[in-house]
Amino acid sequence: MDHRPPHPSHRHVGEPRLPLLAVPFALIAVVTVVDVLAPPDVHLGPFLVAAPAVTASFAGPWMTGFVGAVAVAAQVAVAVVRTTATDLNHTFQIIALVLISIFVTLFAHLREVHEKQLTQLRSVAEAAQEVVLRPLRDRMGPLRLASVYLAAEAEAQIGGDLYAATRTPHGTRLIIGDVRGKGLEAVGDAALVLGAFRAAAHQEADLPALVAHLEAAVAADPDGTGEPAGEPGEAFTTAAVLDVPDQDMTLRLISCGHPPPLLLRGGRAIPLEVDHPAPPLGLTQYVDTGFAPQSFPFEPGDVILLYTDGVIEARDAEGTFYPLPERAADWPGDGPDALLRHLCADLLAHSPGGRLGDDAAMVAIERIGGGA
Known about the structure:
By secondary structure, the chain is of the alpha+beta class. The protein has nine helices and twelve strands.
């Protein structure tokens, strides 16, 4: 199952919040009544400017203008009752109220335009998320899978963390990675790696050839612009690439500078440290190394946890890193979906205010038996 952070439902742009509309009208009524009953040397009319100003903070330009017009009418009524509408003091109050109402109505219009732009950007981000970071299938051959992506920014839905899985004639291949950097450039780099993985995962016969293909894709366009990289090591992606055969009770792993997966078995969390890790994708041109896969046992009932460094680098209020192996080992065991729900809630509780300092992604894979 694929978990996504819940999006808050956004109200229609410019739609007034009805309970709040009572506030400016109540303010107008109270100020008007008190001003009429006040002594001759007391003038409360200037307080009426608060009504359209408050309305502009939550309503659109039409409602703001209407409240401003009601406030102006109330000020005219006060002037007529107390003296005359042409009284110099009330005249200046009315003129000032008209000007301020026009100003805050313009402000409400600009805010409404900005909200429309943000709504369009959210729609584009959600569409990009579905295209770039596709949800993983719950079942792939003899494996059950679950994934979660936690964005550090409240309005973001995708960043530089990535994961994907695809079926091959003999098993399942998976990747999890973390692009250096943030923002749209990181999203573009993540899309580049994922596109290369999806295109080659079922074509390349062995795992080293697949990782070499990913390295070639990153090296050919290191910063997503089609231009040569500016400085060595300027753009790179850490990644862990796995090949899980349907029949053999093993998995093969190539780690390109990525945190080691955890094997959860018998109440223990065992890091799958490879003997010869490769450099991150995009850096192998500077280091003379190959891509050597290493095999690890992966039996029915075992769970493999893949994660990005946003998980293990999350700190609590005292600066302590999140102890992922210990927390994962405490999991009672009820499938990959329950594991990620448990870790996600625990990770957010560990982070001050439930906010992460970096994007975080996790993928849990459980072997449940023979291929399907």
